[in-house]
Design goal:
Helices cover 43% and strands 15% of the residues. By secondary structure, the protein is an alpha/beta fold. Strand 9, helix 10 and strand 10 form a beta-alpha-beta unit.
Length: 278
């Protein structure tokens, strides 16, 4: 297994329309591009990467509004194209085919990037990916309505200046007490990036890829979720399993939404086994 890698920023940081994009890299070999979820930066993947074998080129970036990646979305224009453009730009900077790995919203962005068809992708691995439109496509209006009530209340709370508005989202996905259990520095970062998470929800609701679209995605996909996942996440994962043509799935015992932190070694083992097939 790898020891803690030494990360560096690329000699030329990629940009979109003159705005910066996070770019961190370590190692040599096939390129693995890690996409963090909401409220996250490349650091979210470090615990998993520390348990992965040598022989890969690990690249980390942040999505719009997080880390060193500029926010290009607005509430009137939150479309997924903004996020896909980040992935496209980083992939171009890598200048090699990539294995895409994403957590939560980053998993949804990984899938959206594959559906766009503009990147040379070797495989996709997602951990609790959240393409929430599939709840409507799979006729689960109850789960979608519950999700919408939470996210609408979250946006209203944020706009009203509620200091702990992010707790609503964190606890919804991870279970009661998830936010309070986080380190103070992580909670502070969630507080400071809440406005970008509001946009993440708007992005998710406008990204209307259907089960039919995923059925055309002829790329090997690994879907991982926590065994204690939120019912909405379970349904989304089941819908992807039923429609992706080349898919394998695993559930991590005892884990919920933030499994890449709480069960990093288990996640690394699943990812390493998947990547070893290429």
């Amino acid at each position: 297994m790898a020891t803690a890698p030494k990360w560096f920023e690329g000699p030329v940081m990629p940009t979109v329309d003159g705005r910066t994009i996070d770019y961190q890299e370590t190692g040599e070999g096939p390129a693995v591009l890690f996409l963090p979820g909401s409220f996250s930066t490349p650091a979210a993947w470090r615990a998993v990467q520390n348990h992965l074998p040598h022989g890969y080129r690990f690249v980390g970036t942040s999505l719009c509004g997080y880390g060193g990646t500029a926010e290009t979305r607005t509430r009137d224009d939150p479309g997924m194209a903004h996020q896909v453009r980040i992935v496209e730009t980083v992939a171009k900077h890598i200048a090699a085919p990539v294995h895409l790995v994403g957590h939560s919203f980053g998993g949804a962005v990984a899938l959206a990037s594959a559906l766009a068809g503009t990147i040379d992708i070797l495989s996709i691995a997602t951990f609790e990916a959240s393409p929430i439109f599939l709840l409507r496509d799979h006729r689960r209006p109850d789960l979608l309505a519950e999700l919408r009530r939470m996210s609408d209340a979250f946006e209203i709370a944020h706009d009203a200046g509620e200091p702990e508005a992010a707790k609503r989202v964190i606890d919804f996905w991870g279970g009661d007490g998830s936010f309070d259990a986080m380190p103070d520095a992580v909670k502070d970062y969630c507080r400071t990036t809440t406005s970008s998470n509001v946009l993440d929800w708007r992005t998710g609701y406008t990204f209307e890829a259907s089960a039919v679209d995923y059925a055309q995605l002829d790329i090997p996909v690994l879907l991982v979720r926590g065994a204690r996942a939120n019912p909405a996440m379970v349904n989304i994962t089941e819908t992807l399993i039923a429609n992706l043509p080349d898919v394998r799935m695993a559930a991590v015992n005892g884990a919920s939404h933030f499994l890449i932190t709480t069960h990093a070694e288990d996640c690394a083992r699943l990812l390493a086994d998947f990547l070893a097939d290429f």
